[in-house]
Description:
The chain is mainly beta. Helices cover 6% and strands 47% of the residues. It is built from 2 helices and 18 strands. The radius of gyration is 21 Å and the shape is globular.
Amino acid sequence: MSLTAEENAPAVQQAPAVGVHATARITAADRGGVTTLPVLDGDGPFELRRLRSRGTEARVCVVGAMSAPLGGDRLRIEATAQPDTTLHITSAAATLALRGPTPDHATYDVHLTVAERAELRWLPKPLICAAGSNLQQTWTVDLAPTARLILREEQILGRAREPSGHVATRLTVRRAGRTLLAQEAAYGPGAPGWDGPAVLADHRATGQLLIADPAFETTPPDVRLLGDAPEDGHAVLTPLAGPAVLATAVAPDGLCLRHLLDTAQSTVRRPAQVSEQ
Length: 277
């Protein structure tokens, strides 16, 4: 039996895919005045668990099912709060970004959609950027005119007694299709001046708290400086050009950072206060 040239050629080995590609989806819907979760679809390192409801809200905890994000990973979470719902999303533990099997960066994208008269609370544990990690993280938020949002994000730059990994973040918030907030930041090796006196100096924890509420159209919060002791960090609370307020904080560690952000939230007068648990 004779073989053609194509049949006689050695088999080509396909290069294995490097990194995990995963998307988790959460959808909250109104059912008779109670928020339900018709879509709760975990994937890859994301295991989604329903928590006990409080009143009419639905609560979801994101549990890490494997080490992630690593270099080369492409991770995404999509959460939608449909009209007249309240959705609270937290995480079981801090997210730890690590060096991966490839020098390529990892991505972690969060896309939140909040419909009319809905409220979404995105309150996970911090992101820890271990030495050698390289992460690009984005938040994209679309708000309806009557939607409410509470979004907290915290970065801890390096574990105890180790240098920081590299992290680049982008936050984009649109309300009724118009940009409410757009900002970028980068920390760690390769980010110019990130540890200089104009940025973090000796601090290794940074984060912010964004609260958007239609009530701020008539009663916007005042500018406030927070933090009594310089060694414990500082925060500033500022109203945005729209019905929202942003608190930005830098601190020596995650505990001080959370205290500053909790203090910022407690100073903002809203129609309803929010539990951090």
